[in-house]
Amino acid sequence: MYSILPISLSSSPTKWLISLIIALAFSTLTQAQSNNDIEGASSQQIWIDLSPHFKLGEQTKYIGDFGFRKIVDDDSWARIFLRPAVRHQLNEILSIQADIGVSYDWSKNNIDYLIVTPRQGIKLDWPSFVRFSFSHLIRIEERFSYQTSDWSHTLNLRIRYKLDGTFDFKLRKTGNFWFLPFYAEVFLGGDDDTHKFLKNRVRSGVGLGYDPANTWQYIFLANWQNSISSDEYQQISDIIYQLKIKKTIGN
User: Could you say which residues form the signal peptide (predicted)?
Assistant: First the structure.
């Protein structure tokens, strides 16, 4: 097994780790090609994320976002959301963060949901090389889903682990640069009575990013997502095209 990218690192285990992560991220493209062969429902979605970042203190930063999601095949589902979030840096590689998401879901079966999602997490930025950087994010998530027809609700508890990676095509110190983002995320837990759009199991993606001046950042991702439908207990495979725009305000 070898990496398709020309990296030169002193640690053999690190080479294996990087090769495995890159292969996992690029498997998103294979999943997209074989989407029609997966048993169960499938969809194509568009996600738009807008994320303003700014400092709240010497080691504390606002990192929230807002945006929308939509199934484009048959207009069967859509979501708008707002997620205020704060991250506090403990040292050079370790930080803690908390956010609370508020979203509203529409669906073609006329069952709409208001979802409130507090999350708490810890983030490790490691390892990091000249052009490669990786981070690990573990979050505990509590989802309160309210059915708007009668305001009945369910509570869903789960743990999320996300591995992020970035390969820079140009050194950051030179200013404008293009980069290759990729990630894989797993979801653990979840109650059977949670409505189907919350029962994600695995998500991965790879894309292309552009940072013109270290204040704006544009990222396009092609994502693959596997979920379970609680009403029919059916495997669901989604292909998601995502645009993320980040604006850093101040230093």
Answer: 1-32
